[in-house]
Structures are given as structure tokens and as C-alpha cells.
Amino acid sequence: MNNAKVITKVSDVEQLVQKGVKDLRKAFPHIRRLAESEDWKVREVAATTLVEISKKRRREVVEEMLRWVEDVNQNVRRAAVEGLRDIARKEPDDIVAVLEKSKTDTSLYVKKSVANVLRNAGKRNPDFVLNLCRTWLNLHNPNANWIIRKGLRKLEKTRPSEVKEVLEKLE
């Protein structure tokens, strides 16, 4: 990206959010380029832009993120997950397919995002997060196990016995 001005906040791309709400096919390529950036601030803009668009076009954004989450570029995969954080808080069942595709990702950057999205979902939907983590236990996958540990961190305060039960099965 060779822009004269570095994009560092969603207000800088307000037109892109509006374009995305109006016509996602035209907005997704630009958002994807932001997600691929080497600059973390630009990548955050991509994720935040996806969050904003998903408030109006949830289904379509989730469908596209199902493709992005399989990309070779970890920054794109991370944006696919992080861009769904608002949906995760409100309707986590809508993003299960994306989380399922991300649960064994080898990239620490992506794993951190998946765990963060689980923590966000756990605020309103702790049963969703606990049940998903219980299912992922059966994978015996070190990447999924890492996500489970980090994703349940905040639920340790509100659901300590259930979290302890899950975490004990990891060891």
C-alpha cells in the first residue's frame, strides 16, 4: 500500500464502510488489501471496517469471511476472525463456521484473535463458549488447546468450576 496518508482509524475509511453497506463486492477487495498490510494499524482498520459493515450486512460478511479464513496470509485470516467480533458478542452461533475453520490455525496472530473473539462472545453467551471449547477438547490439537486456554480466561471469574473442568481436560 503506497498511500500518501496512512490509514489508521475507521473514520479514515468511512466511505469504504458506506460502500460496503451498499455493495460488498466493490468494498471487499479494498478491505482485503488493508487486511494484508504490513502496518498493524491499517490491519485494525480492515477489521473494524468489517465490524461496522457486519452491523448491516451480517450474513454476507460472514459468508466472505468463510473464504478469507482459509487464505495463506495470516493477516487476512486474522481479519476474517477479528472482523466478526461484534457478531460474536450478539449472535455467536452465526460465526461458528468461521471459528471452526480457525480452531487449529498454526499462526499465533490468528490464534490470539480467535481467543479474543471467544472472550467477547463469553460476555453475553458463556454457554456458547464453554460448549464450543468442550467440543474442541476432543481434537487433542495443541493450537485448539491454546485457544481454549486463552479464550476461557475471563470466564474463570464468572464460571470458575466449569472453566476448571474444561482446563483440567487439557492437561
What does this structure look like?
There is one protein chain. This protein is mainly alpha-helical. The chain has one domain (10-170): Serine Threonine Protein Phosphatase 5, Tetratricopeptide repeat, CATH 1.25.40. The chain contains twelve helices and no strands. Helix 5 runs parallel beside helix 8 (108-124). The longest helix is centred in the last third of the chain and has 17 residues, at 108-124. The radius of gyration is 16 Å and the shape is elongated. It starts with 13 loop residues before the first helix and ends with a helix.
Query: Poorly predicted ranges (pLDDT <50, ≥5 residues)?
Result: none
- Coarse structural class: mainly alpha
Approximate shape:
elongated
What is the count of β-strands? Answer: 0
Domains (count): 1
Radius of gyration: 16 Å
The helix tally amounts to 12
What share of residues are in beta strands?
Answer: under 5%
**Level-2 CATH architecture:** Alpha Horseshoe
Largest sheet features: none
Query: What's the level 1 CATH class?
Result: Mainly Alpha
Helix content: over 70%
Q: Summarize model confidence as the mean pLDDT.
A: 93
**CATH fold label:** Serine Threonine Protein Phosphatase 5, Tetratricopeptide repeat
CATH superfamily membership: ARM repeat domains
